Amino acid sequence: MTGEKAIDGCRKQDRICQKYIFDRWSEPMLMLCLRYVKTLPDAEELMLNGFYQFFRSIERFVYTADAGITAWLTKIMVNECLMFLRRKGTLKIVEEKYAVGAYVEDTPIGKMAADELYRLILDLPLGYSTVFNLYVVEGFSHQEIAAMLGISEGASRSQLSKAREALRKTISVKQEK
Amino acid sequence: MMKDGQIKEKLESLTPLSGGIVFGKEEAWDKLQARLDARPSRSIPVWWRLSAAAAVLACLFLVVRHYTSQNSTQLAVQHTALVPPVPPPSFVPITQDSVAQEAPAVVRHYTVPVSRETLSVSYPAPVPPLVTDTPSDTVSDVVAVAPPPVPAPVLPHKMRVVHINDLNRQISEAPEEFVYTGPALDISKMKVVSLYDVQREEEARRREMERMTLVRLSRPHSVLGFSAALSRTAQYNAPVTSNLFSIRLNRNR
Prior knowledge:
The complex is a heterodimer. By secondary structure, chain A is mainly α. Chain A folds into 2 domains: 3-88, RNA polymerase sigma factor, region 2, helix turn helix motif (Rna Polymerase Sigma Factor, Chain: A, Orthogonal Bundle), CATH 1.10.1740.10; 114-176, Winged helix-like DNA-binding domain superfamily/Winged helix DNA-binding domain (Arc Repressor Mutant, subunit A, Orthogonal Bundle), CATH 1.10.10.10. In chain A, 70% of the residues lie in helices and 0% in strands. The mean pLDDT of chain A is 84. Chain B is mostly helical. Among the domains of chain B are: 51-146, no CATH class; 194-253, no CATH class. Chain B has 9 helices and 4 strands. Chain B has helices at residues 4-12, 25-37, 46-82, 96-101, 116-120, 164-172, 195-211, 220-235, 240-244, and strands at residues 91-92, 106-111, 130-135, 144-145. Chain B has a two-stranded antiparallel sheet with strand order 1-4. In chain B, strands 2-3 form a two-stranded antiparallel ribbon. The longest helix of chain B has 37 residues, at 46-82. Chain B is rod-shaped. Chains A and B meet through helix 2, helix 3, helix 5 and helix 8 of A and helix 1 and helix 2 of B.
């Protein structure tokens, strides 16, 4: 089954096609949710909500490639996660002074394991990690991040800068040990 | 830049299994399938709920209003049943000659209260019709309306009240048989005098005689007035006899 046929089947409420889409994209979407919320049950719940929204809004989706499905699902999941964080009231981003040149080029990222990097990002403050994920992993611009979080672009930039600085310090401390 | 591409690749390549995360895919699919099978609950907009509530209230109001108006109409019907039936008024056109001969015409307007407020108030007693009398000066707008027949009150036969003394006097002064023995009279030349006028003249003559009486000492205050007059004359050393006969007491004093 290809992605296109699966999308056509999903438009007809075909359970097999829906299962195909879910099997193929559920794990990446769960990991995406786990980057924003730190507990597995919350992440699972958000992932299920995202897939439910996807199947309900399948009529508006225009298939071009499988990457399109990934992008559509990613957008839905990110929105679900941000809504969840707003509902909980944990996402409070304070505008800080923009720190220029906080990143370091020679950080040995390539030598680090993926799960180790994932845990380092999770240990960051929630505002830092959220902006970092949105900018670095999901690829949104500062303007889009500012619109999604309801903050200014400067605040988004400063949050990203602080996140990089905190990540660099953590990696340096780990390497020293 | 801190090698953003590398970070992205590493994070996207992470799977639950490699990250040590236990993910029950089949259980999650069952949950999702249950949600998809469940009928989506349609959220009813607030304005729709409000309008529905308003419509229900309006219907209730109309039903209650209809019921109460029916009740008041039934009461009014029962109410009018207690009022004695009034015969339809007879309209008689009156001509100018007939009006001139008879008494001044009186137009009577009979109005029966039929408003809802009046009918809704129920009393056991019948409602009397309102009658307004307006005398009319012109003949053109006069329409005589015969009043409803009112049963005449049964009054006792009118009798003259006579004192027992008058009866005795009448018996004693009963005229005897009159026999005229004088010369022949010409009735055509005689003056007709009313008996009432004769009695009035006699009464006036009697009052004039009483008025001419000098002193009437029939009341106590008249005596006091007489003594006061005597004391005044003694104070001024005036002759008592000169004033004694000039005192005239007013009987109304």
